[in-house]
Specification:
By secondary structure, the chain is an alpha/beta fold. It is globular and about 65 Å long. It has eleven helices and five strands, in the order H-H-H-E-H-E-H-H-H-H-E-H-E-H-E-H. Helix 1 crosses helix 3. Strand 3 (146-149), helix 9 and strand 4 form a beta-alpha-beta unit. The chain has a single domain (15-224), classed as Cobalamin biosynthesis CobH/CbiC, precorrin-8X methylmutase (Rossmann fold), CATH 3.40.50.10230. It has a five-stranded mixed β-sheet, with helices on both faces.
Length: 225
């Protein structure tokens, strides 16, 4: 066996240095056309999603509507409810970052009722998913909330339907569920609520890590300024 060559590895760098170098490479590799789609603040969030996936194609399907970054920061500063459609999102959110905006944020304060017995019972009774049941049962908590969808398209679709039918207005909707059934359709429904700030990743791509990365990217804009 030939002598191994480890010279291509960046050994002498800590995590922060590696992250900075990653962003430098993202900035360098993204095409001018891709970057031109976003404002400076939007680009900060967009490249965070590229960093999460190493997938530049995300830039072609990412869409911002209604000043969502400003809306999210305002909501965080008043301690708005954060609703997650999966426990992975709840687990992934940085509580220390959230507490830089409002001291009341804790892991327990992040709302994700997907495993609650009442939600399970409602879903079984009405023959719907727990994700849809959770949104239905907790709709009163969603006024002015930050809604993060990375897993369950029916949670997103159900929220939009409630907004259209009742006038409910969350502060921000992040629509990034992943999959094959109801996914593309649920994201398209966000076009029905143009008066609500939202961020969506069109197409089948998505996932809980991307929903987390979106809110983290937004928070970093204020924390680093």
């Amino acid at each position: 066996m030939a002598n191994p060559d480890f010279s291509s590895i960046l050994w002498e760098a800590d995590g922060l240095e590696i992250e900075r170098e990653s962003f430098r490479r993202i900035d360098a590799e993204a095409t001018p056309v891709q970057r031109a789609r976003f404002s400076a603040d939007e680009w900060h969030v967009a490249r965070r999603l590229v960093h999460t996936t190493a997938d530049f194609a995300i830039l072609d399907t990412l869409e911002f509507s209604g000043q969502p970054i400003t809306a999210a920061l305002d909501a965080l500063r008043r301690g708005a409810t954060i609703y997650c459609d999966s426990n992975m999102i709840k687990s992934g959110l940085s509580v220390p970052k959230l507490q830089k905006f409002h001291a009341g944020y804790t892991r327990e304060s992040i709302l994700c009722p997907i495993m609650e017995p009442a939600v399970a019972a409602y879903a079984k009774e009405h023959h719907i998913t727990r994700a849809l049941a959770g949104v239905t049962l907790y709709r009163e908590r969603l006024e002015g909330a930050i809604f993060l969808s990375g897993n369950a398209p029916l949670a997103l679709a159900g929220l939009v339907r409630i907004c259209v039918e009742t006038g409910l207005r969350p502060a921000l909707i992040v629509g990034m569920p992943v999959g094959f059934v109801n996914v593309v359709e649920s994201k398209k429904l966000l076009s029905l609520v143009q008066d609500i700030p939202w961020i969506r990743l069109n197409g089948r791509r998505g996932g809980s890590p991307l929903a987390v990365a979106t809110l983290h990217g937004i928070m970093e804009l204020a924390i680093q300024s």
